[in-house]
Amino acid sequence: MSTSRNEPDQCNLRKYDFPLDDIPRLNCMDPQVDELIKSKKPVVLTGSNLVGAASKWDLDYLEKNMGNGDFTIFVSKGNQFKFFDEKKLAEIDSVSGAHTKNRPQKEYIRPAKSCPIKIQDFAKRVREWKDGDERLYLQQALSSTSGAGVVQDFIRFRWDWVTAKQKLHNWGKLTYNLLLVGLEGNVTPCHYDEQENLFAQIHGHKRCILFPPEQFGCLYPHPVWHPHDRQSQVDLDNPDYDRFPKMRDLHGVQAVVGPGDVLYIPIYWWHHIESVKPEKYTVSLNFWYKAGPVGQVEYPIKGYQKVAIMRNVEKMLAEAMQDPEEVGALLRTMVQGRF
Ligand SMILES: O=C(O)C(=O)[C@H]1CC[C@@H](C(=O)O)C1
Ligand SMILES: [Zn+2]
After folding, report:
1. CB 281 near ligand 1, within 6 Å
2. What domains, with CATH codes, occur in the chain?
3. 75-116 residue pLDDT tens
4. Predicted model pTM
5. ipTM score
């Protein structure tokens, strides 16, 4: 497997039952880079210096240069930080008609709870963290209030280079940059996003496992109306082949990214990301771009377009029946024994 400089010890990396090919690692000036991005295939870009101005963003620097605002951290008893969209709970109520109102409210398990913290407290807790303690993950969108030092560095990112990429590949606007500071061993379980992503690694190493949108059927995402929308129901690190038999057909790609590497995670591509040894914590910053305009549709349509269609069908059916919980039964009736 290809990795960045001072590679983490490969024997430490978890083994999986499914095959994992290497994501290409190319210098950002290599013309193949834009061919891969154009065809929405992942690639690790080296030498871009995209966030070179953030190469000093270790815990000490962030502690001194992120001001005294509140930052969002997630706390988890285990090592998984599965995104839970609280807004979906309100949407379920708004879609569900009167006939479901008197149903007992389903209790959703929140794998990680979010809470505000000062960067100084967070840094102290990371330094003092030891195996067995609850795990922390700072996940905070950067803004002009992120602290003077950090903002100054942010301004000095290679905006010329990344904006040229955005334009060349017809991406939509930059929605935001999420700063991620997590402990070694933290896992963001398999999910996809509806945005293009340039994922810049700043401190420490992360093992990134990706699957193409075409493997939707092997990864059993939660329903669109569920707070775990876009997240896979499967746990790659604890596979349940009885419940999810198609996991046996998984075939992924992977890369270990280190400081200075930028991983292109194409829109709708599944990704499972783990902070790995030897460093105690990792710092990453992503660049999320809205999808560009669809333009001329080519047939047969692509995997990611099928995912977008399936999402729209689920939303439309839930809305039409005023009850998200009835969508599965209707779809089964519609296809079983007929197609
Ligand atoms: O950038 C993305 O798309 C993400 O999923 C981020 C959310 C948690 C991050 C991680 O590195 O664990 C990755
Ligand atoms: Zn993601």
Report:
1. no
2. 13-97+104-301 (2.60.120.10)
3. 999 999 999 999 998 888 787 877 877 777 778 888 889 999
4. 0.96
5. 0.96
